[in-house]
Design brief:
This protein is α+β, with helices and mostly antiparallel strands. The protein has one domain: 3-Layer(aba) Sandwich (Glutaredoxin), CATH 3.40.30. It has five helices and four strands; from the N terminus they run H-H-E-H-E-H-E-E-H. Strand 3 and strand 4 form a beta hairpin. The structure holds glutathione.
Length: 127
């Protein structure tokens, strides 16, 4: 069965990536100072994702729309990120946003809707 579903999944993934690419929202604009401040905060975040997962596309679009510089970590193909997601995050599910607080404590936020809401509440204001 995998021999049939794998190529179908791959083709669907490519279509999703293409549609995402041609319909990308315009990133929001901020002052240089505001963007620098936000870059400092997002330096402590990382998005564990799969390239072709529709839920990850949804979150990556939000990151793009909010003009956030958040490191992408491919949890499907990179064994380091795969292992870290499962052992530290608690489960093999993407997207997952790793958020490291100033005191060093770490939160692993799962669910695309929750991640998008978190980012929106934190970064949608432009100044
Ligand atoms: N409700 C979740 C669904 C996420 C989901 O189903 N992700 C899939 C990839 S598209 C996953 O992590 N699958 C794990 C696996 O392939 O084992 C969300 O909105 O984030």
């Amino acid at each position: 069965m995998g021999i049939i579903f794998k190529p179908i999944r791959w083709i669907l993934g490519q279509i999703i990536i293409f549609i995402d690419w041609i319909t990308r929202p315009k990133p929001m604009q901020r002052s240089v100072d505001a963007q620098t401040k936000i870059d400092q905060q997002t330096k402590k975040m990382a998005l564990y994702h799969f390239k072709m997962c529709p839920f990850c596309v949804k979150t990556r679009r939000q990151i793009h729309r909010l003009a956030l510089n958040i490191e992408d970590r491919d949890a499907r193909n990179d064994p380091q990120w795969n292992k870290e997601l499962v052992s530290d995050g608690g489960k093999y599910q993407v997207p997952c946003l790793k958020i490291t607080a100033d005191d060093g404590s770490v939160e692993w936020l799962y669910e695309s809707t929750e991640i998008n809401q978190f980012l929106d509440e934190k970064f949608a204001v432009s100044n």
